[in-house]
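User:
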Amino acid sequence: MPRWALGIDLGGTAVKLAVIDENGDVLDHQRHPTRVNAGPEGIVEHIASLGFSMYNRFKKRLDENLFAGIGLGAPGAVDTVKGTLSYPPNLPGWERYPLKSQLQKVLSNEYSLDSSLILENDANIAACGEAVFGAGKVFDDFMMITLGTGVGSGIILDRKLYRGPRGTAGEIGALTVDYDSQSVHVGIRGSVESLIGKKRIVSMGIDMYRCSERNVQAETFHGKDLCDLSPRTLEKAAHHGDAVAKEVWERVGKILGIGLAGVVALMDIRKFVIGGGISGAGDLIFSPAFEQMKAATLPSMHEGMEIVPAALGNKAGVYGAAARCFSFIE
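Assistant: Predicted structure:
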């Protein structure tokens, strides 16, 4: 019988949990709204309750002696040595919060579950998931990039997670690619995240439609106000041939490509796995990103360049959390 683990992915809008065995089979998967207003303690209590409930249902069926532990991915700055979480987006009040020890304490005191717990940044844990069970399993070295509300990334080098000396490696979203831009995110002007995060893509689309010479609003959005614009509607419009929507995605791809070129030049990483909700636009982003990446790097760097879509969807985080529990990746 294979070992099994509980993977948890804490986000600003949802908590995802899954029971996964070492063969990569998802035996159960749940999604619950994050109780943002409950504060750190309330969220920890909620995670503990959800996690124990799932563990308790499977411990006899799967043999609790084969339970490999709990893996937890969380957004923001994670100190894997101290087990703390700081400044997670959309979750106020978490400065240097001892997430690992607090969750273990609640699980032990309230549920008598004494388990090993691995805490990791959410983008890093998603990279681990793709490395072991997804699109990255054929690569020794790659960067996993998540395009969504923000832009996150994790680096796999020689089949190992690379965090850097202080644990902050891979923050491609904070990389400045246009210093003259008026877009600013967390004080950084013209960063990748400030230019192609979800809100910026929408505002870019609104601006470009309003400046366009023809009125395509009724045709594309069926009479809805531009305030209803979203990445999904932009994606649909582009696939239906809308020129403005296509141009939005081309700009997004080119900005991403400039960021990827920096990674290629500095780290000699040439494989990129792209996931997250925004990545659903697929080649609308990937094609211009690839061409811009080539244009912004030396010809000697072009060999082996590749951009591929992530394979695990919104389960990459829970897969990666489980993979860490099985010690499939360090």
